[in-house]
C-alpha cells in the first residue's frame, strides 16, 4: 500500500471534509426531534472533545459518553486492593490511566507518594521486560481495559512467557454487555456509536442484537474526527428513514469476524463471569477472569487478597447516573464545588474524558445552560476565517 | 476505549515488527497479526498490532470521500 | 494547608496549579515581596529589581532531569540554557550566573566534568560571567544522581516584559516546533528512547534580546517549559486577563513528536519545550518579528494566534477541522494512557 492511506488519514482530519459532512448532518437533522447517540469509548470521547465536535453538531443531536473508559468503571474495591498490595511492598505496574483514579480514599498516585513502588508501563510486553530485569522483586500488573487490551495480555500468558515474579490483577471487562445494560434503561440511547478498536477484536456479530432486539442502530466507528462525523450522519440518515441497522464505518480496520486469532488466545486464557461496574452495579457476563489452569498468574490468589466493599461513589455523587446518561453533571451537588479536576470525588471528574471533566471545562452553570465560555467557543467557530 | 494508532510496517522480525508512525519508528508485537508484511498498515494498541488495514476498504473510502469533497467547492465548516 | 493533603506528591512539582497553590501557601507570611516591577507574587520567569534608573533581572531554578545525559544535551546545558531563557523572557540580557551542584557519593567524576564543561562552553560563548557557586556531596542512596541549581543575573534592555502585559489585538508568536524536550522525557520514561529518534530542543536563546530590541513591539515573552505551550498561554491569558485564540494548523510541531503524543495518548501542546519562546507582540510588528527571527536562524518561527477580550482568562484553540475547544491549563505532568 503506497501512501494513499496517509492521504485518507489527512482527509479524515480536514476541515473541507468536515464541512461537507456537517452540512449533510444539518440537513438530515431538520424535522427530527432530539436524537440521543451514545458512545461507550473513552477514546471516542477524546476525539469528540479534542476536535470540538459537539460544537458543530445541531442542537437536537445529543452525543453522550456512556460507560466506556476503564478509569470510570473500575470499582473502588479493586483499586483499593491494588493499593493495599502496593503499600505492602509488591511493585505495581499499571497503565497511566489508573494512576489518579480515587479508590475509597487513596489513588495509586497518592500511594506512590507514601512509598509504594508504582510504575507506569506502556504495554504488557514492557511489564514482562521490567519483571525479567528484576527477578528478585515481585510485580503485579494491573490488567485493566476492554477486549482490545485483554487481547494484548492473553497471548503471552497462553504461550507461557510470563516470568514467575509477575502476576496479574485481572480487571478486564466487555463492551457489548455494558451496551445491553444501557439498552434496558427506560430512556436509553436512540443509537450507538460502537468502539472501533474493540471491534477489530470482536468483529460486528456481537452488536447484531441491538438493531434486532432493541431497535437501536449501531455504527462501528474509527477515531479520526471524520469517522465520528460520518457515524453521526449515518445514524441520522437511518433515523430519517425509520430504519434500524448495524453499519461498519470502520471497515478499513474491522472485519465481520474480528481478529479470530486474538479471540482464540483471549478465551483460552480468560473466562467470562458477572462483573461489578463502578457507579452502575453488577452486569451479568461482563468481566474476564483467568481460567483455572492459569490461576498461578492470578494476584488475588497468589497474595490471598480479599476484595472488600469499596466506596464506589460518594453519597450524593451522581457519577453512576452521569455514566449512563441518566443525569448531567450539574444535577450533582458536588459538581464544580467540592468536586473539581484538582480534587476529583467521582471517576467522571478524574478521567480526562469523563463527562463531568468535560462539563467543568466548559463551566456549564446550573441547569445546564450554555456558559459564557461555550458561547465564546461558538463565537470563535462562527467568526474566524 | 482503546487508543490505537495507524503505522506502516517496515520490517518483520519473527513475532515483532518495526513500524513507522510518521517520523517515529518503534518495535511492536505482531503475535496477534502474524501475517503482516512490509508495506502493510496496522493499528497498534499498547505495543501490539491488533489489526491489518484492508487495502481495498481504505482505497474505497479514500475515493468516496475525495469525490464528495471535490465535487462541491465546499466552504470550510466556519461559514455555516 | 490541610486542603493540600499531608504529604508532597509529584504533581506538586509539575509547575501547574498545584505548585502554585502549595508555594502560595508557603510564602503567605513574607512581608517584603518586591523591589521593582516583578516580584514574588508575579510568579514570572525572573524577578526585576530597581536600583535608581538601573533595572536588573534575577532568577533561580533547579534541574533534576533523568537521564542526566540525553539526546540534545545534558543537565549542565539544560541548567544554563534555562537560566538564560528565564532572563531573556523578562527582557534582560544575561550577564552572570552562579551555580550550586549537589551530587551523590559515587557519581562518576568524568560525568561531572562533562556537565561542568557544558555550563562553561555556553557561558564563554555569550561572555557571561561565572561568579561563584557551591558544591556538596551527599551519601550514596540519599540522592539519585545530581541536582544543579543556577542563579542568573541580567540587565533589563527591553520592557521589562511581564506575563501580565499581553494586550488585546496582539499576535502570538512561537519561535519553533513545540514539545521536543517533553517528548524526549516521555520516550525515556517508557524506555522507548533508544528506539525513537527524538531529542531535546534544549538551547540558550540569548540572541532574542537583540531581536526584540531591533524590532520592538513585544509586550510579553515566556519560555514554555513545564506544561508546554498550553501552560504558557494559560499563564498569559490569566495574568493579563485576556482571551488568547490559537489556530492548531499554524502551530509548528515535528511529526515524530506528534506521533509519540498520539501513540501515548498525551496532548503535544502540554509537552515541555526547552529551546523555544512564545511571545505576545503588537500586531503591526508581528511580520517584522517573524522575518528577524528567521534571519537569526529560527526558521519555523510562526504567528499561531491572536489576543481578544472575551472570555477573559481563557485560551481557545481552533481545531484542524475548523471547530473550536478550550485549551485547559495542564494538571500535573502528562501521563501516558491507553484508553
How does this model look, in words?
The complex is a heterotrimer of chains A (385), B (80) and C (339). By secondary structure, chain A is α/β, with parallel strands linked by helices. In chain A, 40% of the residues lie in helices and 16% in strands. Chain A has a domain of 120 residues: 3-Layer(aba) Sandwich (Rossmann fold), CATH 3.40.50.11750. Chain A is built from 18 helices and 11 strands. Chain B contains 1 helix and 5 strands, in the order E-E-E-E-E-H. Helices cover 28% and strands 25% of the residues of chain C. Chain C has a 7-stranded mixed β-sheet, with helices on both faces. The radius of gyration of chain C is 20 Å and the shape is globular. Chains in contact: A-B, A-C, B-C.
List the helices and strands and how they pair.
The complex is a heterotrimer of chains A (385), B (80) and C (339).
Chain A: H1 4-11, H2 15-29, E1 35-39, H3 42-50, E2 61-65, H4 70-73, H5 76-87, E3 91-94, H6 108-112, E4 118-120, H7 124-133, E5 139-145, H8 147-158, E6 166-172, H9 175-183, E7 191-195, H10 196-202, H11 209-214, E8 217-221, H12 225-240, E9 246-248, H13 260-269, E10 270-277, E11 281-290, H14 299-302, H15 319-323, H16 347-350, H17 355-361, H18 372-383
Parallel strand pairs in A: 1-2, 1-7, 3-4, 3-5, 5-6, 7-8, 8-9
Antiparallel strand pairs in A: 10-11
Helix pairs in contact in A: 2-12, 8-10, 8-13
Chain B: E1 5-13, E2 16-20, E3 25-29, E4 41-45, E5 48-52, H1 55-71
Antiparallel strand pairs in B: 1-2, 1-4, 2-3, 4-5
Chain C: H1 17-26, E1 47-51, E2 54-63, E3 69-70, E4 73-74, H2 75-88, E5 92-104, H3 109-125, E6 129-138, E7 146-156, E8 171-174, H4 180-189, H5 208-215, E9 218-222, H6 228-240, E10 243-247, H7 255-264, E11 278-281, H8 283-295, E12 302-308, E13 314-318, E14 324-326
Parallel strand pairs in C: 5-6, 10-13
Antiparallel strand pairs in C: 1-2, 2-7, 3-4, 5-7, 8-11, 8-12, 9-11, 10-12, 13-14
Helix pairs in contact in C: 2-3, 5-8
Amino acid at each position: 500500500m503506497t501512501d494513499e492511506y496517509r492521504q485518507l488519514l489527512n482527509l479524515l482530519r480536514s476541515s473541507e471534509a468536515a464541512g461537507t459532512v456537517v452540512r449533510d448532518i444539518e440537513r438530515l437533522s431538520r424535522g427530527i426531534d432530539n436524537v440521543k447517540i451514545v458512545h461507550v469509548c473513552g477514546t471516542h470521547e477524546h476525539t469528540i472533545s479534542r476536535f470540538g465536535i459537539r460544537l458543530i453538531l445541531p442542537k437536537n443531536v445529543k452525543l453522550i459518553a456512556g460507560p466506556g473508559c476503564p478509569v470510570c468503571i473500575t470499582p473502588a474495591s479493586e483499586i483499593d486492593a491494588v493499593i493495599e498490595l502496593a503499600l505492602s511492598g509488591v511493585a505495581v505496574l499499571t497503565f497511566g490511566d489508573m494512576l489518579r483514579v480515587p479508590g475509597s480514599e487513596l489513588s495509586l498516585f497518592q500511594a506512590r507518594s507514601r512509598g509504594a513502588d508504582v510504575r507506569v508501563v506502556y504495554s504488557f510486553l514492557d511489564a514482562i521486560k521490567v519483571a525479567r530485569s528484576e527477578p528478585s522483586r515481585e510485580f503485579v500488573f494491573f490488567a485493566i481495559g476492554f477486549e482490545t487490551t485483554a487481547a494484548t495480555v492473553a497471548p503471552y500468558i497462553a504461550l507461557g512467557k510470563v516470568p514467575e515474579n509477575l502476576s496479574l490483577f485481572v480487571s478486564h471487562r466487555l463492551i457489548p454487555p455494558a451496551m445491553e445494560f444501557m439498552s434496558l434503561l427506560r430512556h436509553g440511547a436512540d443509537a450507538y456509536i460502537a468502539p472501533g478498536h474493540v471491534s477489530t477484536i470482536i468483529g460486528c456479530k456481537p452488536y447484531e442484537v441491538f438493531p434486532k432486539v432493541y431497535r437501536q442502530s449501531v455504527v462501528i466507528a474509527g477515531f479520526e474526527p471524520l469517522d465520528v462525523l460520518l457515524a453521526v450522519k449515518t445514524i441520522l440518515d437511518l433515523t430519517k428513514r425509520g430504519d434500524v441497522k448495524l453499519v461498519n464505518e470502520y471497515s478499513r480496520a474491522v472485519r465481520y469476524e474480528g481478529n479470530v486469532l486474538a479471540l482464540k488466545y483471549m478465551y483460552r486464557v480468560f473466562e467470562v463471569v458477572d462483573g461489578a461496574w463502578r457507579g452502575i452495579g453488577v452486569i451479568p457476563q461482563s468481566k474476564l477472569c483467568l481460567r483455572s489452569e492459569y490461576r498461578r498468574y492470578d494476584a488475588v490468589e497468589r497474595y490471598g487478597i480479599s476484595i472488600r466493599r469499596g466506596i464506589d461513589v460518594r453519597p450524593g455523587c451522581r457519577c453512576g447516573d452521569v455514566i449512563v446518561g441518566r443525569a448531567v453533571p450539574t444535577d450533582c451537588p458536588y459538581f464544580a464545588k467540592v468536586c473539581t479536576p484538582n480534587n476529583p470525588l467521582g471517576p467522571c471528574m478524574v478521567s480526562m474524558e469523563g463527562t463531568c471533566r468535560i462539563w467543568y471545562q466548559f463551566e456549564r452553570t446550573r441547569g445546564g445552560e450554555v456558559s459564557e465560555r461555550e458561547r465564546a467557543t461558538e463565537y470563535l467557530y462562527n467568526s474566524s476565517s | 476505549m482503546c487508543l490505537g494508532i495507524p503505522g506502516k510496517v517496515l520490517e518483520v522480525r519473527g513475532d515483532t515488527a518495526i513500524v513507522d508512525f510518521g517520523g517515529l519508528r518503534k518495535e511492536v508485537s505482531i503475535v496477534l497479526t502474524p501475517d503482516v508484511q512490509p508495506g502493510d498498515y496496522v493499528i497498534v494498541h499498547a505495543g501490539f498490532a491488533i489489526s491489518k488495514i484492508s487495502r481495498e476498504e481504505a482505497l474505497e473510502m479514500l475515493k468516496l470521500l475525495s469525490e464528495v469533497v471535490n465535487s462541491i467547492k465546499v466552504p470550510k465548516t466556519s461559514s455555516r | 494547608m490541610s486542603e493540600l493533603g499531608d504529604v508532597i506528591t509529584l504533581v506538586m512539582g509539575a509547575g501547574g496549579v498545584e505548585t502554585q497553590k502549595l508555594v502560595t501557601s508557603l510564602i503567605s507570611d513574607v512581608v517584603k515581596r518586591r523591589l521593582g516591577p516583578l516580584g514574588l507574587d508575579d510568579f514570572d520567569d525572573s524577578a526585576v529589581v530597581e536600583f535608581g534608573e538601573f533595572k536588573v533581572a534575577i532568577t533561580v531554578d533547579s534541574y533534576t532531569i533523568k537521564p542526566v545525559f540525553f539526546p540534545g544535551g545534558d543537565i549542565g546545558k539544560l541548567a544554563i540554557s534555562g537560566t538564560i531563557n528565564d532572563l531573556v523572557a523578562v527582557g534582560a540580557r544575561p550577564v552572570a550566573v552562579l551555580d550550586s551542584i549537589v551530587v551523590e557519593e559515587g557519581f562518576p567524576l568524568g560525568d561531572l566534568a562533562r556537565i561542568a564543561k557544558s555550563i562553561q562552553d555556553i557561558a564563554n560563548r555569550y561572555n557571561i560571567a561565572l561568579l561563584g557557586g557551591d558544591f556538596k556531596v551527599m551519601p550514596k542512596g540519599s540522592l539519585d544522581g545530581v541536582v544543579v541549581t543556577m542563579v542568573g543575573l541580567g540587565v533589563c534592555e527591553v520592557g521589562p516584559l511581564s506575563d501580565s502585559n499581553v494586550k488585546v489585538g496582539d499576535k502570538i508568536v512561537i519561535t519553533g516546533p513545540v514539545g521536543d524536550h517533553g517528548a524526549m522525557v516521555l520516550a525515556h520514561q517508557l524506555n522507548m528512547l533508544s528506539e525513537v529518534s527524538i531529542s531535546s530542543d534544549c538551547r540558550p536563546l540569548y540572541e532574542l534580546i537583540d531581536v526584540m530590541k531591533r524590532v520592538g513591539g513585544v509586550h510579553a515573552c515566556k519560555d514554555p517549559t513545564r506544561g508546554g505551550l498550553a501552560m504558557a498561554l494559560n499563564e498569559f491569558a490569566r495574568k493579563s486577563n485576556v482571551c488568547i485564540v490559537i489556530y492548531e494548523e499554524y502551530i509548528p510541531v515535528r511529526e515524530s513528536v506528534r506521533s509519540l503524543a498520539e501513540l501515548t495518548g498525551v496532548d503535544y501542546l502540554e509537552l515541555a519545550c526547552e529551546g523555544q519562546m512564545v511571545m505576545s507582540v503588537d500586531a503591526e510588528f508581528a511580520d517584522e518579528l517573524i522575518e528577524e527571527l528567521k534571519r537569526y536562524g529560527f526558521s519555523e518561527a510562526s504567528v499561531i494566534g491572536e489576543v481578544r477580550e472575551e472570555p477573559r482568562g481563557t485560551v481557545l484553540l481552533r481545531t484542524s477541522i475548523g471547530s473550536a475547544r478550550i485549551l485547559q491549563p495542564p494538571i500535573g505532568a502528562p501521563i501516558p494512557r491507553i484508553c
